Automatic annotation (TrEMBL):
Residues 1-317 form the GH10 domain. One of its GO terms (cellular component) is extracellular region. It catalyses: Endohydrolysis of (1->4)-beta-D-xylosidic linkages in xylans. Keywords: Carbohydrate metabolism, Glycosidase, Hydrolase, Polysaccharide degradation, Secreted, Signal, Xylan degradation. This is Beta-xylanase. The lineage of its organism: Eukaryota, Fungi, Dikarya, Ascomycota, Pezizomycotina.
Length: 321
């Protein structure tokens, strides 16, 4: 059995991967991606972000996102859609056009309504708001927070729910895999949205982790429980576990354990619905360009060869099921 088959055998919705545009013209890459034994779900790494979808005001480009939606449809893969409201990869017109509270709400709602409507029935999940928090749990400065205040969160979720009542709506962030100020901040966001009478279905724990510094199974478990006890699902949405390159054999052995622990954490709670790795191959990983000298974070290497030890680590996390 492959990664996705094993996840499904354990009651999860999927095991999946992000896909970026560079991989889509690489036939070896596409062959591995399209094997639904390993990947039952995909997320566009960039194609549905604001700077692609609405680079200039009210002019929409759904082509790159459609390409990913078509791959998912062709392969029968669950589509996680990412990300509607985010301070990064946000075209400058959104932050610099002198919008006030009323007009920025209008701009944000229009973006959400057009985008969610376009992929209605295709997206299983939407990351509605991405990375709204600082490490101390306070709100991050962004055009949305600075102009609208924290109400931008419930307003965004309400607009998404109105455009597609069936898609599951997620808040997504990193460094919320362990208990602490930022995880508490994300829990505050869940309560805030619910306090407005607005629907939030889940929280995405991105899980951009570091070999040897990844959460234990017990930490994963208690932290996931802290979210699901608020009445939302959890998804592990962008898992990768980086190390210094080239990876030493001891780092690879530890990485296999760290991957297994992440799987076991999700397995411990039925409301953890699935796991997505942030691309499956080092060939297209975002890590080396952001963290020079680090990488080797994924279960396929930069030649698209499977790293059997890491792959087996993930499988072993699922246990015998
Ligand atoms: O599209 C341009 C291309 O025209 C140009 O030639 C090229 C030169 O560098 O850059 C291309 O844009 C890059 C884009 O990825 C598409 O590949 C950007 O420079 C680069 O910054 C961008 O990086 C993405 C990053 O988000 C930006 O924040 C990564 O691919 C993507 O994997 C990463 O994903 C994020 C999640 O959305 C949210 N959580 C963190 C995660 C990792 O940073």
């Amino acid at each position: 059995d492959g990664l996705n088959t094993r996840a499904k055998n354990n009651g999860k919705l999927y095991f999946g991967t992000a896909v970026d545009s560079s991989g889509q013209s690489d036939s070896n890459y596409m062959n591995i991606l399209s094997n639904s034994d390993d990947f039952g779900q995909i997320t566009p790494a960039n194609a549905m972000k604001w700077d692609t979808v609405e680079r200039s005001r009210n002019s929409f480009n759904f082509g790159p996102g459609d390409a990913v939606a078509n791959i998912a449809a062709r392969n029968g893969q669950f589509l996680r859609c990412h990300a509607l409201v985010w301070h990064s990869q946000l075209p400058s017109w959104v932050g610099s056009s002198g919008f006030n509270n009323a007009t920025l709400i209008q701009v944000m709602k229009n973006h959400i309504t057009q985008t969610v409507t376009h992929w209605k029935g295709k997206c299983g999940h939407w990351d509605v708001v991405n990375e709204a928090l600082n490490e101390d749990g306070s709100y991050r400065s962004s055009p949305f927070y600075n102009v609208i205040g924290e109400a931008f969160l419930p307003i965004a979720f309400a607009a998404a729910a109105a455009a597609d009542p069936d898609v599951k709506l997620y808040y997504n962030d990193y460094n919320i895999e362990t208990p602490g100020a930022k995880a508490s901040g994300a829990q505050r966001i869940v309560r805030l949205i619910k306090s407005y009478g607005v629907k939030i279905d889940g929280v995405g724990q991105q899980a951009h982790l570091i070999v040897g510094q990844s959460p234990s199974v017990a930490t994963w478990t208690s932290n996931i429980n802290a979210f699901t006890s608020l009445g939302v699902d959890v998804a592990i949405t962008e898992l990768d576990i980086r190390t210094k390159t080239p990876a030493s054999s001891s780092a690879v052995a530890q990485q296999a354990i760290d991957y297994a622990n992440s799987v076991k954490g999700c397995l411990s709670n039925t409301r953890c619905v699935g796991i997505t790795i942030w691309d499956f191959t080092d060939k297209y990983s975002w890590i080396p360009s952001v963290f020079p000298g680090e990488g080797s974070a994924l279960p396929w290497d930069s030649n698209l060869q499977k790293k059997q030890q890491v792959y087996n680590g993930i499988l072993s996390g699922w246990g015998s099921g």
